[in-house]
Amino acid sequence: MIIETINLTKRYGDLVALNNLHLNIEEGECFGYIGPNGAGKTTTIKILATLLQPTWGEARICGYVIGYQSRKIRPLIGYVPDFFGAYQDMVVSEYLEFFASAYGITGQQRTRIVGDVLSLTDLTYKQDALVDSLSRGMKQRLSIARVLLHDPKVLLLDEPASGLDPRARIEIRELLKELHRMGKTIVISSHILPELADLCSTVGILERGELLFHGSVRETTRRARMGIRLQVRVADKLDLAAQVIGRLEPVKAVQMNDGHLSVELKEGVNDYSFLARALVENRLPLQELKEEEVNLETAFLRLTKGIVQ
């Protein structure tokens, strides 16, 4: 287990930012940390980055205990905060050379490593540009380049795609996929849920400092799925179709939704062929009948609202 927390708790006076968090992340995982604003995501990441001390409980990275063995942990991690801190009048290559020097990397090795991370993050053509002149997306890539200089095992990224335009988000996502393929363990918090579903192997849903669920994306959506939901389209007479379907015994609820019907079946009902028969018998031409998918965004909304018990 590369990251483990046991009863991890952080309090600020009467405010409980984290409440007995139990989290286990295997080596090589890309873990997506999601939750509403104020849920405790940044607090968790700052504790794992050794920047905050927990009120009580324990957190371990690579077997080392945060707070007692932080000096051994820091060379193993790379922390990317949600906002980029830049130095004035410094170009990209100087910025990376400065941090490489701070990591104790010197001489030709430093020159080689800086060149390698510039190439990996696709910033070579910007190596002579002032850091302050970069777009937010390029600054985020530079921030990731900075934490790769010492080749850490674990990357902790707090909202790395926040405020980026669509193209920059895609570029960051592809970079993180490449780092995952290289064997890095990645912990990433984000509100852009479709991208987490595409990127992460596991997710954790946090609300009010408590972990509601931890598992694969498929397990998360499966848990949020409460019976079968169907999308139904007919050629005309949508109102009549809604009445016909609503009278069927296996149907729990039916709603009109932007030109189609959203039909929820009762728990345990898996065969919905009866629905097509009922429409045909009432001379309502069926155009479409399919199951509605539960994506990560829908699962997040249901789980954080307490719909799934």
Write a concise keyword list for the protein shown above.
11 helices; 309 residues; Alpha-Beta Plaits; 4-stranded antiparallel sheet; alpha/beta; Rossmann fold; elongated; 6-stranded mixed sheet
Question: Any overview of this molecule?
Answer:
- The chain has 309 residues and is α/β, with parallel strands linked by helices.
- The chain has 2 domains: 3-87 and 134-223, 3-Layer(aba) Sandwich (Rossmann fold), CATH 3.40.50.300; 226-293, 2-Layer Sandwich (Alpha-Beta Plaits), CATH 3.30.70.
- It is 35% helix and 28% strand.
- α3 (92-102) packs across α4 (107-120) and α4 (107-120) crosses α5 (136-148).
- The longest helix has 16 residues, at 166-181.
- It starts with a strand and ends in a 5-residue tail after the last helix.
- The mean pLDDT is 89.
**Total strand count, please?**
14
With strands numbered from the N-terminus, the spatial order across the biggest sheet is 6-7-8-3-9-10
Largest β-sheet summary: 6 strands, mixed
Number of helices: 11
Q: Which structural class do you get from the secondary structure elements?
A: alpha/beta
Shape: elongated
Q: Could you name the ranges where pLDDT drops below 50 across 5 or more consecutive residues?
A: none
Q: What's the overall average pLDDT, rounded?
A: 89
The CATH architecture name of the largest domain reads 3-Layer(aba) Sandwich
- CATH fold call of the largest domain: Rossmann fold
Q: Into which percentage range does the β-strand content fall?
A: 25-35%
CATH class of the largest domain: Alpha Beta
Helix content: 25-40%
Assembly context of the chains:
single chain
- CATH level-four homologous superfamily name of the largest domain: P-loop containing nucleotide triphosphate hydrolases
- Helix and strand string, N-terminal first? EEEHEEHEHHHEHEHEEHEHEEHEH
The termini sit apart by 28 Å
Number of domains: 2
Radius of gyration: 24 Å
